[in-house]
């Protein structure tokens, strides 16, 4: 209370003489309902329930396929590894009290946002689930579904269950990303006082925990649904559904994940950009104080935005991309196996789950390869963090090539086309090369070491107008190479798949679409490590803010500044990676959609004719929606930023003690 009275009266004295303490803004910690229920159960009872659940999961998996058991095993091991990473990170110290107080305020804001946003999303998801239920209850069924006894009610129940589980897992993925970032930031700040490499290791392992959980949940959720539906519906038994049709029942899972990811990305993005713009406009432009200055009331909101926009939203986004890619590839694999009359189609259907299981393994190795050493301490030259992260990514890429080749030989070998697995392995290699190219292009256009960023900085020396023009032109230019690479990847993978030797009854090659699916799997085969690099960005950004607000020595701020700069590059890298994988996945989703339409219409749908007026108008409307939603999002950011600016101005006017001129700043001016 004394500090608040002094601030309002402007009697705190000089800025340097103020005590480095902050009011306790920590409210009661927020924990989602499902976690509160689990925490209320006795530990022994919870352990027994966990063992029973695992036993049941493995029993259902063993009743389905040995491949499912392998997937379950890898996912559980990855969850155990994530627990180890969590304990390792949380065992690090939080530094002096002023650091912990700032971190508590950031955590409180992030949890408040999560509670508000995801509370609204959950209500909307329940309403949409009821709508889906009604639609499927009145939807016509295919002849195969009627013959196998899977009627409308069963299809509706299965789809709604899949939708709700996908939405739940996507929300949990977002919460996990936010949960670890708001606890790791202060530990990275504290470690920066000792060693740059230690701070880097903590940030990377914090991101690795989130990445393992996100990828593991996506794979585990789909595998559990597949196994449950397989056993419950008696798939492949006489008079029941064929295994090639089972993936069609999983589309609800991908839709649920997409539904939550859409609002998480949009809501989190609007929050973080509005807070960032508002804090910079008032602080740096109007008042001339440094970024993350503790006198700026909007700094905490800015730091909260890093967590809810880049951690929680990106976790849900990549969860959705992985889930959509797996399900669409399973649908295409089942359709191709059916048309090729392959005796055991389970390998082609379950191949995506195996690829992402190996993704968990190789990404874990990449994360653990980054060790903490005394090299790069405060008193010695600092090693380039980007080089360290790139080294870990190179290890992950090499392992991805090896494991992908082994997976294709194990899962995609068939007597009908003995060399098909090698063609699909090359498709995977195309995807892996595409992923590496996207990472390199994003790094080139966003890293301060390269010409684009340097030319943009040079343009800033002649004013705001030239800076904006150069920035817009640079952003437009950066789209060219990714589009060319995606185009080459799609055509190359389709050609390799078509020449794999797999043909239908008429002798027509039909492996092209599945080849593009395999290329998409190859691109996402390192998703775990890429997501780790993305989570590294906001954690490093928060660490720099905490160091600045707690007024740590300049040598510590230099370390966090470098980590922050690298983090901005890794965040951009993940955005490029996510967009590229989404482009490939959208091609798969459209192909899977055409397969499902063909199944229900009982006639082939091989092309979409844009000369038909309705189709052409649909394309125009779809293109228009992109610009319309972008305009609405930008408008929301602008309006929210105005509110932030007005609120900060009000606080500066009503509480004059907030702003006390710094002698060093006066000298600079």
Order of SSEs, N→C? HHHHHHHHHHHHHHHHHHHHH
- How helix-rich are the residues, as a percent range? over 70%
How would the global form be characterised? globular
Whole-number radius of gyration?
26 Å
Major pleated sheet: none
Report mean pLDDT, rounded to a whole number: 82
β-strand number = 0
Summing up helix and strand content along with how strands pair, one would put the structural category as mainly alpha
Approximately how much beta-strand content do the residues carry?
Answer: under 5%
Number of helices: 21
Q: Compute the separation of the termini in Å.
A: 34 Å
What is the strand and helix layout of this fold?
Layout: H1 2-9, H2 33-39, H3 43-64, H4 66-90, H5 97-137, H6 143-148, H7 152-192, H8 196-232, H9 251-287, H10 299-340, H11 346-368, H12 385-411, H13 420-446, H14 451-460, H15 464-477, H16 480-498, H17 512-523, H18 527-549, H19 554-601, H20 613-654, H21 663-668
Helix pairs in contact: 3-4, 3-8, 4-8, 4-11, 5-7, 5-9, 5-10, 7-8, 7-9, 7-10, 7-18, 8-10, 8-11, 8-18, 9-10, 9-20, 10-11, 10-17, 10-18, 10-19, 11-12, 11-18, 12-13, 13-16, 13-17, 13-19, 14-15, 16-17, 16-19, 17-19, 18-19
């Amino acid at each position: 209370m004394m500090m608040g009275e002094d601030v309002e009266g402007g009697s705190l004295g000089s800025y340097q003489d103020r005590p480095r303490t902050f009011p306790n803004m920590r409210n009661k910690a927020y924990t989602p309902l499902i976690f509160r229920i689990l925490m209320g159960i006795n530990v022994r009872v919870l352990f027994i329930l966990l063992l029973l659940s695992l036993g049941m999961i493995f029993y259902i998996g063993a009743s389905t396929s040995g491949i499912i058991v392998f997937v379950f095993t890898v996912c559980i091991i990855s969850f155990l590894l994530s627990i180890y990473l969590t304990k390792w990170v949380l065992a690090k110290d939080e530094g002096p009290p002023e650091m912990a107080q700032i971190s508590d305020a950031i955590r409180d804001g992030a949890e408040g946002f999560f509670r508000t946003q995801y509370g609204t999303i959950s209500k909307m998801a329940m309403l949409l689930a009821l709508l889906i239920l009604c639609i499927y209850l009145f939807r016509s069924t295919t002849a195969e579904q009627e013959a196998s006894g899977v009627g409308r009610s069963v299809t509706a129940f299965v789809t709604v269950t899949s939708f709700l589980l996908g939405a739940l897992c996507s929300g949990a993925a977002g919460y996990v990303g936010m949960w670890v970032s708001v606890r790791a930031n202060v530990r990275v700040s504290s470690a920066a006082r000792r060693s740059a490499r230690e701070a880097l290791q903590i940030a990377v392992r914090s991101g690795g925990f989130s990445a393992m959980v996100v990828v593991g949940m996506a794979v585990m959720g789909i595998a559990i649904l597949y196994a449950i539906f397989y056993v419950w519906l008696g798939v492949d038994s006489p008079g029941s559904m064929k295994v090639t049709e089972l993936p069609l029942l999983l589309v609800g899972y991908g839709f649920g994940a997409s539904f939550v990811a859409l609002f998480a990305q949009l809501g989190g993005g609007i929050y973080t950009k509005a807070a960032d713009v508002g804090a910079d406009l008032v602080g740096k432009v109007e008042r001339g104080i440094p970024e993350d200055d503790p006198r700026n009331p909007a700094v905490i909101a800015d730091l909260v935005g890093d967590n809810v926009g880049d951690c929680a939203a990106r976790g849900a986004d990549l969860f959705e991309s992985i889930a959509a890619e797996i399900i669409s590839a399973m649908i295409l694999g089942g359709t191709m196996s059916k048309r090729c009359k392959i005796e055991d189609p389970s390998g082609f259907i379950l191949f995506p789950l195996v690829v992402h299981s190996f993704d968990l393994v190789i990404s874990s190795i990449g994360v653990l390869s980054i060790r903490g050493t005394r090299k790069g301490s405060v008193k010695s030259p600092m090693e380039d963090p980007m080089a360290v992260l790139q080294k870990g990514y190179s290890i992950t890429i090499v392992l991805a090539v090896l494991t992908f080749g082994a997976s294709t030989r194990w899962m995609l070998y068939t007597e009908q086309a003995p060399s098909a697995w090698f063609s699909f392995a090359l498709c995977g290699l195309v995807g892996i090369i595409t992923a590496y190219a996207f990472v390199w292009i994003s790094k080139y256009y966003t890293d301060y070491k390269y010409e684009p960023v340097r030319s943009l900085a040079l343009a800033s020396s002649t004013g705001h107008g030239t800076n904006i023009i150069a920035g817009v032109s640079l952003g437009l230019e950066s789209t060219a190479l990714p589009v060319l690479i995606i185009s080459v990847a799609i055509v190359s993978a389709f050609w390799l798949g078509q020449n794999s030797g797999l043909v239908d009854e008429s002798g027509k090659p039909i492996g092209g679409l599945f080849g593009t699916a395999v290329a998409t799997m190859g691109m996402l085969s390192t998703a775990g490590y890429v997501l780790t690099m993305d989570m590294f960005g906001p954690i490093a950004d928060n660490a720099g803010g905490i160091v600045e607000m707690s007024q740590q020595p300049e040598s510590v701020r230099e370390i966090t500044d470098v980590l922050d700069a690298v983090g901005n590059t890794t965040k951009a890298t993940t955005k490029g990676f996510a967009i590229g994988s989404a482009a490939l996945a959208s091609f798969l989703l459209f192909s899977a959609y055409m397969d499902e339409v063909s199944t229900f219409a009982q006639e082939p749908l091989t092309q979409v004719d844009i000369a038909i007026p309705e189709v052409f108008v649909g394309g125009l409307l779809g293109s228009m929606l992109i610009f319309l939603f972008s305009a609405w999002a930008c408008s929301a950011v602008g309006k929210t930023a105005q509110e932030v600016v007005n609120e900060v101005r009000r606080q500066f006017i009503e509480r004059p003690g907030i702003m006390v001129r710094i002698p060093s700043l006066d000298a600079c001016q």
